[in-house]
Amino acid sequence: MKEDVKVGYSYTIKDLPMDERPREKLKKYGVEALSNAELLAVIIRTGYAEDTAIDLANRILSIDSSGIEFLSHATMEELMKIRGIGDCKAAQIQASIELGKRISSSREDKIKVNSPQVLVDLLMEKMRYLKKEHFKVAILDTKNQIISIERISIGNLNASIVHPREVFNAAIRRSANAIILIHNHPSGDPTPSSEDVNITNRLIEAGSIIGIKVLDHIIIGDNRYISFKQRNII
C-alpha cells in the first residue's frame, strides 16, 4: 500500500534518482545540457508536497503559451499563484531573470551603432514579448557609441506620454550627441502608425532646436523590426 504523502513535505532534488538530478547533470555535462525545466529546478531547489522541483518548474513554464519567455516579464504575484511557489521561490526566480537581463545590457558599453541591427540585437529579446509599449532612447556619443539606453515611458504611444521634455532631459543629462528612438509593438507587427510618425517628427524638430540629432526610430515587433531611416520615413 502506498504511503500517504505528508502535507507540506518538501521534496528536494535529492529525492530523484542520481542520473535525473539537475545539479548532478550540470556538474557532469555542463549547464548547456539542462532543459529549461531543469535549470529552473536548480534555482527553486525544492518541491512541494508530492511535487518535485522539476514538477514545479514544469508548472511554471506551462503558465503561458510563450513558455520560458513568460519569465522575462512575470510578476511575483503571477508566480505565487502556483501551489508551492511562495515569496522566496518567486524572488529567487525574479532575481535570476534580472541578473540575465543585466548581463545582457552590460554589452551596451562602448558599442558603436553603425546600423539599426546593432540595437535590434541588443533589445529584441528584451522587448519582443512585452505586453505594453515601452519607449526607450539610445543615447550616443560623438562616435555613435552607446552611452546608455534609457526607458522613457510605458503605455500606449501618444504625445502625452512621449514628451520631448522627458526624452531630451535624459539625453542632456548624459551629454548626448545624438539619440535613436526605440519602442515595441505588443501586437508583434512593427508597422508604424500615424501616431508613431507624428511623434517622431515632433522629436526631430525638438532635437534640432536643442542640438541633439534624432538619427532613427526603430520599432520592434515579434522577431521583426522597422527602421524609419532604412524606410526613408525620416
Within CATH, the superfamily of the largest domain carries the name: Cytidine Deaminase, domain 2
Mean pLDDT: 83
Strand order across the largest sheet: 2-1-3-4-5
Overall SS class: alpha+beta
CATH class of the largest domain: Alpha Beta
Number of helices: 8
Q: How large is the radius of gyration?
A: 22 Å
Main sheet record: 5 strands, mixed
Write a brief structural summary.
The chain has 234 residues and is of the alpha+beta class. The protein has eight helices and five strands; from the N terminus they run ααααααββαβαββ.
Describe the structure.
The protein is α+β, with helices and mostly antiparallel strands. It has two domains: 13-105; 110-227, Cytidine Deaminase, domain 2, CATH 3.40.140.10. It is built from eight helices and five strands; from the N terminus they run ααααααββαβαββ. The protein has helices at residues 22-29, 36-44, 53-61, 76-80, 87-105, 116-127, 164-173, 194-210; strands at residues 134-140, 146-154, 178-184, 213-220, 225-227. A five-stranded mixed sheet has the order 2-1-3-4-5, sandwiched between helices. Helix 2 crosses helix 3. The radius of gyration is 22 Å and the shape is elongated. The N and C termini lie far apart (74 Å).
